[in-house]
Every structure is written in structure tokens, then in C-alpha cells.
Amino acid sequence: MTDAPSHVLSDDELDVLELALGDALPASALAAALPDAPADVVLTDAENTPLARLTARTGDRSVVLEPLKPMATAIGPQWDAAVRRPAREVRAALRDAPGDGQGAMGLLVTEVPTREEVEVAVALAAGAGAVLVLVPVARRAPEPGAVGAPGLVRAARSLAATVAEDAGAQVTTAVVPWSGRGGATLDETAAAYGAGRVEMLVAHRSPATAEGVAALPRVREEAVRALYPPASAAEVNRAASGARRRGAVVFFTGLSGSGKSTVARALAAELDDDGLETTLLDGDEVRQHLSKGLGFDRDSREINVQRIGYVAALVAKHGGIAVAAPIAPFAAGRAGVRALAEDAGAHFVLVHVSTPLAVCEARDRKGFYARARAGEIAEFTGISSPYEEPDDAELVIDTSDVPVPDAVETVRRHLMTLLAGPPSRT
After folding, report:
1. Would the annotation count 258 as a binding residue?
2. Is 257 annotated as a binding residue?
3. Is 260 helix (H, G, I), strand (E, B) or coil?
4. What is the mean pLDDT of residues 308-328?
5. For residue 422, what pLDDT is reported?
6. CB 78 within 8 A of CB 265
7. What secondary structure letter does DSSP report for 9?
8. How many CA atoms lie within 13 A of 409 on its CB side?
9. Burial letters 98-127, b for 16+ CB under 10 A, else e
10. Percent of the chain beyond pLDDT 70?
11. CA-to-CA separations, 407 to 11, 99, 223, in angstroms, rounded
12. What is the mean pLDDT of residues 157-162?
């Protein structure tokens, strides 16, 4: 594995890899989606965990995909193992489902279903026997104002329950990692999951319903104009557009393997789903971009943390939420980040993920701790470089005792209490 060059996958490329590992796409489709990758390459996530090896054979021109380590998951309904299953498993389960042997009726839920689309889904499912509700979701954050993956999956599962009850069908719900890359259409991907006939529900949206959905952003402004004379309406709308809540920096610190990145990513997804503009600054990803070229000596670590703090403060200064998850082993560096956030007028929440070193070592997916103890990695935090435990953290969470969903909710509740304060103005 170590003799091959590596390629760090983007969120969109991770979606394609997940489809290929689940047999929804051939390995050649993954290779086509990575035109700049070497012919023999180890594919990693942003944390440099080796996920798979992709090899193009020159003899028979075939492409081989070898899984190496499990892909990282997060929390939220889109990560529920009951619905996020490999295509091969969903397809196999549907082989014995009632029907005419032509595959399940596939219902593609690409937008939150309207009442009209729920009625259409029930009608399409009537007499189908087996129905497959497919929910394409991407790892990347949604566009501002759009319903994200958690909300779309919740709405789709509610639709599935209604179809099962009203149409008397056997309904299976499947989340499909979908970035639009990989060369396959949604219909072709649905077929790989076991669907026969495929219907995209949004395509059944009537012009009147489509117009109503498109008009939603204008509803408040029109209501204001109906209530106030023009001059007053202008002032009310101006005040609404100018007022915003204070931004916030949520800064996780802890040893490698403590769970801080997992909690941070899940928190960012929850906040996005709440409609808050959230930027995730994870330590490994920052190292590949903002801090590329820096080493791991003390000075380089401090510069890395300072850069993260500076960007986080800029995000928060303009009312956004920055969630950062570096190791940040030194008290001085963390204090500097706090000062930057507070100088920007933002809330600052320091979360110490205090998971014990022994637990972190046991979780190590990348083998860093073993290499550090063998002397192969110099200045590794917790082994050959110190970690200065914070005494000023707003929250302390040990993920060996606290499940990730509970940890996320603890941080989210604390943050929401801060954000519920009066709005700031610029």
C-alpha cells in the first residue's frame, strides 16, 4: 500500500468512491472521475486515511478497486445505517420483494416533497408491490437557503411511511451518495440499487406548485408591503436585511483520535441543516491548503493554529459560524484564537475533547501512534510532544463516555443559547 502514490479525495470524489465500493458504479467510472490521478494510486480522505487502492492494469486494460479501510461516517439521518447501505445490499434485498420481477418502483426524492408529490408517489406505488425511495445526497454543504441532506432524508422517510400505509406497498428507503460525478445518471444509479421503472417526483410538480415553491422567498417581503405603506415597508425590510446575530467560533481541541473531527463535522452539518452559514476548518484539510508546506515543529504548529483562528474570526465577523478542529496542543495558540474571535465581536466556544490517550491510540486508523512510539514520527502530540490541557474550556467532552450524537447536542445547545442573544449591526 505504501509504495503507491496517494490522492486526497474531495467530498464529491468521496461520493463517487462510495458508489463504486457499493457496486453502483464500476471501478472504471471512478478512474474516469480522477483523470489526474496516477494509474496505481491510494485514495485517501482529507484526514489522510487510506480508503482504497485504484489500479489500472495495462495488460487487459481493466481497473481494479481494492478497499483498504472503512470510510468515515458522521451522524444525522443521512448516515443512518438502515438507509445508507451499499447498492449491492439494497439490490439483493429487493430480489425477493413482491412484484412482477422487473425490479422495484423507484421514486427519486431530489427535493423536499410537496403535498402534491406525496399524492403522486402514493398513486405511482399503488399495485407496485415493492417501492424503492431513493434519496440522493451530497457530502458537500448545500447552497444557502436550500434544505440539506438531513432535512431531505427526514422528509423522504416520512414520504416512505405514507406510501407504505396508503398504497399498501413494501417500501425500502436508500440514501445515495450523489455528487453528479462518475458518468452515470440518476436513473442508471437507481437501477444499480434495484429499481426497475424510475420516477423523479419533482418532475410531477405542477406549474402552479412550482410557481408557489419558487415564490416562497418573496412571501415575507410581499407580506411587509401589504401591511405597511411604501416608506415604512422600506424601513422594515432594511432593518431585517441589516440585522444579524453575532457570529461564533467553535474551537475543538484534543489529541489525534479523540473524536474532535467527528464531532466537529457532525456539528457543522447540523448547523447547516438549521439554516446557519457554517464553515468547517478541520485540521487535516487546513494543512493541505491554508497551511501547506508547514512542518510539525512547535513554531509550525502555532502558525497553523493562528491561521485557522484568523480565518475563523473573519467568518464570524460577518455573522457566520466557524467550526475548527485542529489538535491545537498549546495554551498560547488557543488563547490567540480566542482573542482574534473576541476582537471580531464574535462568540467563542472552546471545546476540549478530553478522550484519554489510551483510547485515542486504540482508535488510530492511520497508525500514527504506533509509528510515533517506534520513533518514526518526531514531535507527535501526546507521545513525543506535549499536549497542554486547557483550563479555560467552555465545554469538556470525553467521547469514550459520551456518544457522538450527545456530544454534538451538548455543543449545539450551548451555541444556540449564545446565538439567542440580541442581534448585532454593522
Report:
1. yes
2. yes
3. helix
4. 93
5. 54
6. no
7. P
8. 7
9. ebeeebbbbbbbbbbbbebbbebbbebbee
10. 93
11. 24, 44, 40
12. 96
Q: Write phi, then psi, for 197 (nearest 5 degrees).
A: -75, 140
Q: State the pLDDT at residue 409.
A: 94
C-alpha separations of 86 from 91, 190, 347, 412, 416 in Å: 9, 12, 41, 31, 35
Q: Which amino acid is present at 297?
A: D
Beta-carbon neighbour count of residue 287 at 10 Å? 20
**What does the pLDDT read at residue 1?**
44
**Per-residue pLDDT reduced to its tens digit, 30-42:** 999 998 888 899 9
Q: Is 292 annotated as a binding residue?
A: no
Q: Is-contact 215 46, C-beta < 8 A?
A: no
- What ranges in 100-253 are assigned the alpha helix state H? 115-125, 149-167, 186-192, 207-227, 230-242
- The CA distance from 161 to 170, in Å, is 10
Report whether 336 belongs to an annotated binding site: no
> Which residues neighbour 412 within 8 Å (Cβ) at sequence distance 6 or greater?
267, 270, 271
Lowest-pLDDT choice from 81-85, 169-173, 213-217, 306-310: 213-217
* Cα 324 off chain centre by: 14
Residue 421 annotated as lining a ligand binding site = no
Q: Burial level of 13, CB count in 10 A (0-12/13-18/19+)? A: buried
Q: What is the pTM of this model?
A: 0.75
The two counts, helices (H) then strands (E), for the chain are 15, 15
CA distance 8 to 46: 6
**Are 380 and 257 within 8 A, CB to CB?**
no
Is 78 in contact with 134 (CB distance < 8 Å)? Answer: no
| Nearest residue to 8 via CA among 50, 56, 68 | 50
354 is an annotated ligand-binding site residue: no
CA dist 348 and 2 (Å) reads 40
Question: Picking from 53-57, 345-349, 390-394, which range would have the lowest pLDDT averaged per residue?
Answer: 53-57
Identify whether the C-beta of residue 170 lies closer than 8 Å to the C-beta of residue 130.
Answer: yes
Cα separation, 257 vs 369, in Å, equals: 10
What's the distance, Cα to Cα, between the start and end of the chain in Å? 53
